Amino acid sequence: MLLPAAAAAATAAAAAATAAAARAASRLVQLFPSRRISSLKVPWKRDPVLDAAITRDRRFRQASRLVREVLLSPGRRLLFRYLTKRRERIKLPVHVPTFLRRYPTLLSVSPPPKPVASPSPQLLAFLDFASRLYELHAPLLASRLAKLLMISSTRALAVTKIAAAKRDFGLQDDFLVSLVPKYPELFRLVGDPGPDASGNAFLELVSWDDKLAKSVIELKADKEANVVGIRPRPNFTVKMPKGFYLKKEMREWVRDWLELPYVSPYANASNLDPASPKAEKRSIGVLHEVLSLTVERRMAVPVIGKFCEEYRLPNAFANAFTRHPGIFYVSLKGGIKTAVLREAYDEKGKLVDRDPMLELKERFVAVMEEGHKKYLEDLKMKREELQKEREVAGHEDVKVAAEIEDQLEEEWHSGGSGDNDT
Fold first, then answer.
1. Domains assigned to the chain
2. Tens digit of pLDDT for each residue in 220-275?
């Protein structure tokens, strides 16, 4: 309970905020009386720090796609010749046997004549750890999934759309079986999703939870209120990148736009004019909240686009990311546009707040690095043995040895350098 003086101060602050919002709305109309918000252009500027954060993950993404092909096969076993034919589908920059030589702890391959790929002992240990971690954080994942449904105007989402983004939100591959049935008070599955979640099915919200209907921005304001006794006006954190400058008219627009009242992504937005600054505020709130619910506070723009209809986002929603460079960043690395929540990363490109599900990725990368380290040690040993053979043989068979060394050199650099992830 607020003291009388604090209550009076809070009332005065609320009145001042309302007056400021009214003035801001008036200035916005004066600044752009006839222009649509979607026509406002802001130049895109590359952020090497955030680009590097995405580039660092390319090996992880390649390896996880490869492993998933085996894990989703019957009995977690797949004929090796079938796996090698899926190179293009899983976007590997090298042949499957080459990739597995570089990361031998990912999969085990049985001997000919019909080699079969299956999880390695190290991968099986990782899967056991993943199962325990999913169980531990089931309440977190359930609340995250419920929030995604609560943002939807229909309080439901197609299973295919959730499945397309499940890894972004930290959901397990079989979330319809392992997570959803545990929370009948929250979820109802309608229709038949099929074995691969590609069927005509929807996940519906059973009951609204006011405790969950608060965005990250609103929770931050509540937290500050508990500390200082006065709740600040919820708003976005603007963190402009170094060396980035907006033109004067755009700076004025952003200033006045930030003065407008915050619109919760969980609020009913059916009465908002789609071309109004308030609708823009609501759209940015939705995009901010969706990215805040992801494990790494970033998501591929095409995947976000799958939720446009249910989340009442405009068709040109992607332009909003570049229109607000102090809130978001769009990376073009990896051959796909990725929206990044700028405030979630520090100046070194590291996440400020760690999501509990991030440990899964770190454990998987550790399995990869264990095998890659052994691969590099073996290469080094082969080089040393070749050098000794050349010293003993003198100049005999120099040409053949040189050819072998060239092959080893190529293998050495391909093992330590970066592959392009498309």
1. 4-31+233-344 (no CATH), 54-127+359-416 (no CATH), 138-210 (1.10.10)
2. 999 988 888 788 889 999 988 887 888 888 888 888 989 999 999 999 988 888 88
Q: Using DSSP, state whether 204 is helix, strand or coil.
A: strand
Q: Minimal CA–CA distance to 172: which of 130, 204, 139? A: 130
Q: Which residues contact 150 (CB under 8 A, 6 or more apart)?
A: 205, 208, 209, 212, 213, 266
3-state SS string for 90-113: CCCCCCHHHHHHHCCCCEEECCCC
Contacts of 326 (CB under 8 A, 6+ apart): 238, 239, 240, 254, 342
- Structure tokens that stand for 287 in this block: 């995009």
Query: Do the Cβ atoms of 245 and 233 come closer than 8 Å?
Result: no
Who's near 140: CB < 8 A, 6+ residues apart? 356, 357
The vertex-276 CA angle with 297 and 344, nearest 5°, equals 15
- Which amino acid makes up residue 247? K
**3-class SS of residue 203:** strand
Q: How far apart are CA 76 and CA 102, in angstroms?
A: 21
Q: Distances in Å between the alpha carbon of 305 and those of 36, 91, 287, 378, 422?
A: 21, 22, 10, 45, 20
- Residue located via tokens 């096969």: 73
* Ordered strands of the 328-331 beta sheet: 298-300, 338-341, 328-331
- Kindly state the tokens that stand for 422: 């498309």
Helix, strand, coil share of the chain (percent; to 5): 55, 10, 40
> What pLDDT digit, counting tens, does each position of 18-67 carry?
555 555 555 554 544 444 565 677 888 899 999 999 999 999 999 999 99
Other Cβ atoms less than 10 A from the Cβ of 202: the count is 18
Taking alpha carbons only, the member of 391, 386, 389 closest to residue 412 is 386
DSSP single-letter state for residue 276: S
